Amino acid sequence: MIFLRHDAVKFLINDPKQKKEAKIAIKQVYKYCDSDEKAEEYYQHIKAKSGKSTSNLDFKDATCNPQYRGATWTNVGYIVFHELTGINVIMLYSSTMFKQMNKNGGGITPRQGTSLVGIVNMVASLVSVGLVKYFGRKTLVVWGHLMIAAIHAATGLLNNAGNSTGVIACVLAFLCVYQNTSGPVAWLYAAETTIDAALGLCLFTLWGTVVILSETCPILMQDSVIGASNTFFLLSGLAVFGSMYGYFFMKESQGLTDKEKKLLYTPQRFIDADNKAEADDNLK
Q1: What are 58-105's pLDDT values in tens digits?
Q2: Which domain holds residue 7?
Q3: By three-state DSSP, how is residue 53 classified?
Q4: Domain count within the chain
Q5: Does one domain contain both 125 and 249?
Q6: How far, in Å, CA of 172 to CA of 119, rounded?
Q7: What pLDDT digit, counting tens, does each position of 8-49 carry?
């Protein structure tokens, strides 16, 4: 076990007054950094790729400061569409569908169905590790929501036809698509592009949307209201709007450094001012 008697390298680099301590830390952390020249090279490289610390910024900065609010509100908007894919509704409806299939003499019990959903979720999540690495966030959002829209529409049609097996197949297909697109991307993108305080607002938005959907969708699925099929058609339409939101309002972060991702929604005037201040510090 190794104990390092200093703060994290990035934390030290973000504080110009601790450059000396940062270089000492770099020498201890990086194996081939054994001279002051190498330490300076590593210092400049890490500094160029890292954004400045935003841990001290508060909720007001996240929502009102023109330097950060663009990223905040873009992600809050997407979190709503992320939940409007209906993941919680689908999970609830799948349990009901497994029970109904079992009553009608289907070959799968509710317990087996729940296990099947869990296995598909797990496998899809493992596959997502590769997809989110090789495909851009915006690409996954746009195409993911379009595929989800198609699956929801198919679910509604199959449900109208009384094809329970087809409905379950669509549910499993939805889980595969969701776990490889909107599922992980919503939080990866928010963490990459917003300040810390904004993530709390995104989480609040997510659970607020979950509560609303949990209360309204079971009511909508009743035959006396609009029915299960029409609820899926509604979710399909919302998924199309989610795809359009991603296409028109979200910016691609693939291939960018951590610093560039944090600046995606920052007005150019603030970027220019930061660059000038950094250049002035280097001259000193």
Answers
A1: 788 888 888 888 999 999 999 999 999 988 877 777 676 666 655 555
A2: 1-50
A3: coil
A4: 2
A5: yes
A6: 10
A7: 655 555 555 666 666 666 666 665 666 766 666 656 655 555
